[in-house]
Structures are given as C-alpha cells and as structure tokens.
Design brief:
With 301 residues, the protein is α/β, with parallel strands linked by helices. It is 34% helix and 22% strand. It has one domain: Metallo-beta-lactamase, Chain A (4-Layer Sandwich). The structure holds the ligand N[C@@H](CCC(=O)N[C@@H](CSS)C(=O)NCC(=O)O)C(=O)O. Keywords: Acetylation, Dioxygenase, Iron, Metal-binding, Mitochondrion, Oxidoreductase, Transit peptide.
Length: 301
C-alpha cells in the first residue's frame, strides 16, 4: 500500500471523532494509530510464522508436521541463512516424508532430537540417520537411552543462529526435556505439557508430583506470550501459550494434591505400540540394533 493510500485508509478508520482536533494533533493521532496498526501487523506476522510458515525476516524456518496414527507432532527448525536444520520428535513411518521435505527446502539436517523415550511410536531418528547421512541423534542423558549426543539441562543446541535451551521436565518419564527458543518465544514441551493436559505418569518412571513441579518451574515460568508446542494433540489443536495454560489447563491449574489425585485416576489404556516402541527408542530408533531385529520391530510397529 502506498503511503498516501495507507494514510487515507487510516483517516477513514479514525473517523469523525478527531475532527475537532487541530491539524497537528489529528496528524499525531493518525500517525500513532497507524503505528499501532502497523505494529500489530508485525506481531501478527510473527504469530503466523510461529504457526508454520517460513518467515523471511525472522531467521527461522519453522514447520509443524503431524503423524495421524500416533497424533505426534514433529517440528522442523532451520536457520534461513545457514540452512542448518534440526528435527524434533520424528516418527519412523514418516522419516521419508521428513527427509524429502528437508531435501526440497535445501536444508542441511544437523540434529534429530527427541524430547524423551516415546512409548507410543518408534522415533524416526535411526531411519533419518540412514536417509540423511551425517545427522546426529540427540536424547537427554537422564533418559538412560543411547544417542550420538546426550544433552543435559542448561545445554544449548544450535543450528546456525537458532538456539534451543535444554530444560529438564521429568515426570512423564525421568528423562523428559523441554527445548526453549528464547529468540522466537517458543518452547517444545514433548509430553510434559500437552494442550490443556499433560503426559500420563503411570509408567516409565512416571511421577505426578515430579511432573507438576517440573512443568510449573520450567515451563509455566516462561513469559506469558511464549508459544508452547507439544509432542501430541488428540483434539486437533496445534499450539498453546504459557498464559493460556496457566489460566485454563484443567489439570495443572489445580493444587499439587488435586493434580496427583487426577493423574492417579486417569485410567488410560496402555499405548498400543508400547512393547515395540520402548526397546527401539532406548537405542534412538533402531539404528544400532541388528538389522534383522530392527526389521522385525519395524514390521510389528
Ligand atoms: N492411544 C494412544 C496413546 C495415548 C496416550 O497414552 N498418550 C500419552 C502420550 S504418548 S505415551 C499421554 O501421556 N496421554 C495423556 C493424556 O491425557 O491423554 C496409543 O495407543 O498410542
């Protein structure tokens, strides 16, 4: 929009309420109003980028990918300048989809990162290491699993200028971590915090008290506007924010005692693929298992 057209548009929006002000005051009001509108547009752009579009001026390329079978979200993050990229929580059946996307976007996949040892699907880490040679699998040291790189709280994973701080958020499993991108105000919470929910605590060293304390101290203390991206959603939602979860999460807004009571009575059936997923994910998705056993597990999954 040319400046004159923009100003005329702003004048029309401002309407008659400023007609009695002096020309200078009216100009100041319009400029101010226009600045606010323009600023809002910029904020909107940031929000849109964070929902999955490639931002041209943020330095971050971001994609949220979905697995319909396990309702798992996989996230692709890359530095638009250096083209270095990482994947968070890929799923083995969709490793080829992810590898193709990375190739199409001409990215250099550096890390395949897991928020924890998943119980409901096999991670795509091992398969991606085969499809995109040179990438490095990542898991937390506390998970007790095997990976090329084991991270600890306070570590920072970098792809170009994109940085993820590792925060310990145990309770769903002992080794669960949350990755925080402070520059873009986003956090990847794995199963520790789901949208309007949280990870179950009834297996894999799960502990409701530990989960409650971890989520409150490591995630809900982030700034209100930070966007939170979980590893799953079962209702079709894609993203939430610290503010929304602090205000509306039906489990985590309760007291610790009430939370423990809720979690101990969820009565959820075990994940369908738990028996094949856990052994495979402890070695980051088959790559270090003998080929015949890997093929057998993959077939069963
Ligand atoms: N039906 C699914 C498993 C669903 C499930 O148990 N989800 C987990 C995260 S994956 S281990 C969970 O923590 N859910 C919490 C909740 O409140 O739903 C399957 O069979 O795979």
């Amino acid at each position: 929009m040319a400046t004159t057209v923009r100003l005329l548009w702003a004048v029309r929006r401002v309407g008659t309420c400023y007609q009695s002000a002096s020309p200078a005051a009216t100009r100041a009001i319009i400029t101010n109003r226009y600045y606010n509108l323009y600023h809002l547009r910029e904020l909107n752009t940031t929000t849109i980028m964070a929902s999955g579009f490639v931002g041209s001026n943020s330095g971050l390329l971001f994609r949220q990918l979905f697995d319909r079978d396990s309702c798992t979200y996989t996230y692709l993050l890359a530095d638009t300048a250096t083209k270095e990229a990482l994947l968070i929580d890929p799923v083995i059946e969709l490793a080829q989809r992810d590898a193709t996307l990375i190739k199409q976007l001409k990215l250099n996949l550096k890390y395949v990162v897991n928020t924890h040892v998943h119980a409901d699907h096999i991670t795509g880490s091992g398969m991606l290491k085969k499809l995109v040679p040179g990438c490095v699998s990542v898991l937390s040291e506390a998970s007790g699993g095997d990976a090329d790189l084991k991270v600890n709280p306070g570590d920072v994973i970098k792809v170009g200028a994109v940085e993820l701080e590792v925060r310990a958020t145990p309770g769903h499993t002992a080794g669960c971590v949350t990755f925080v991108d402070h520059a873009h105000g986003m956090a990847f919470t794995g199963d520790a915090l789901l949208i309007g929910g949280c990870g179950r605590t009834d297996f894999q060293e799960g502990n409701p008290e530990t989960l409650y304390k971890a989520v409150h101290s490591q995630i809900l203390t982030l700034p209100d506007q930070y966007l939170l991206y979980p590893a799953h959603d079962y209702q079709g939602l894609t993203v939430t924010s610290v503010k929304e979860e602090k205000e509306n999460n039906p489990r985590l807004t309760k007291s610790l005692t009430e939370f423990v009571e809720i979690m101990n009575n969820l009565g959820l059936p075990y994940p369908r693929k738990i028996d094949v997923s856990l052994p495979a994910n402890k070695v980051c998705g088959l790559y270090s298992l003998p080929d015949d056993l890997a093929a057998e597990l993959q077939k069963a999954s």
